[in-house]
Amino acid sequence: MKPAHSPDPRPKSAVSAGVGWAGLVGLLVWVIFARQFGWQGERAAAVAVAACGAPMVAWSLLIDRVHRNPSTGLVWDRPIRPLSRSLDISVVKLSGLWATWSIIAILYCLGRWYWDGQYLFAMHAMGIAIPFVLVASIPYMLWIDRRLADPRDGTYAFGQFLLRTGKPPREAIVEHLRSWGVKGFFTAFMISIVPGNYRDVIAPASDEILANPVTLTRWLISAMFLIDVAVATVGYLLTMRPLDAHIRSANPYAAGWTAALICYPPFLLMSNGGPLDYHYGTQEWMWWMNGHPWLLTFTGAILIMLTGIYAWATVAFGLRFSNLTNRGILTHGPYRWSKHPAYVSKNLFWWLSTLPFFATTGNFTDMVRNTALLAMINGVYYWRARTEERHLMADPAYRTYSAWMDRNAPLARLARRFRDSAAGVAAE
Length: 428
What we know:
Order of helices and strands: HHHHHHHHEHHHEHHHH
Helix content: 55-70%
Number of helices: 15
Number of domains: 1
Largest sheet: 2 strands, antiparallel
Strand content: under 5%
């Protein structure tokens, strides 16, 4: 007997579930070997990212065949135009692209934080990659401009502006700079946190991990964060049209950028001593529950589950993870139940792991302040979610998904039932 078709089917996702899972398998295989043979250090961490990214690229091209998607704007069967006609376009675009990279490099040099602490790894890795990327960009641009239905994009417009050729549309230049602003800022950050997350997973010995529920919980949480960081880093590095992972649009709203940037260094407001630091006089969950093994185990399991949802939300993006951009609308994985599963799970994790309403100082003011500050951080993430939705609503695919979620998401259904019940009681 065939299952009945849903009367309200979920909209198709821009990314298949297999892409992210392929990357997860590649990463886990590397982690197993790295722990077995003690492969630590920054180079091994970089290989972990590659081990995550390579299977995702292979799955995307060989299984999903994303390079054939109309949204790439590419014609694969044959070049649309000869090199003689596309060469001038490519020269202008290379000028725009290299100038953009130069601006990002200058901004890196101006930002003092990029040359200290964890960011040193990112700057070192980018310094090594620059010559190879510059050389590779030439044949790539010559090749892609022969096959793009419309090669005169934002990069071309910016090149025109710099070379003073023609009258480039202002909005195309602004969109180009917004997109590369996102990529430049977040790529450096993601690369910088790879080694630390990798070390937290590889360095601990097995007997140390399995010593008690707390050590096991902390290691599993670290493993989830490594998955999140590896997949996200791959997403920022492989923003390419042949993979259908290019940026469709970057968030055009200042409120969206503000809400996002204050959650990351150097603008982070939640850091120690920052205006939204809710850790004064607090201790982690295991401190308050010490001596209660069943409570420790239960709480640890919930924290692992929340971190797992957070990592799953990133894995679902496959090659397309990115803040402040639209790179295709997701409807699968945890996004079938929530529009913002990562934000929801992350904020719940902070409440349970920190318990801000308890304070070792015994000071009621500290308890109230810490609780209020964490609630304010929840508000920041709600703000982020709303500004993201405002941006994505320009995409018809997101409007369709949003309407479907309003009808089918668990919280939406619960709220609807509550309203219907309240209306029924009022009618009586």
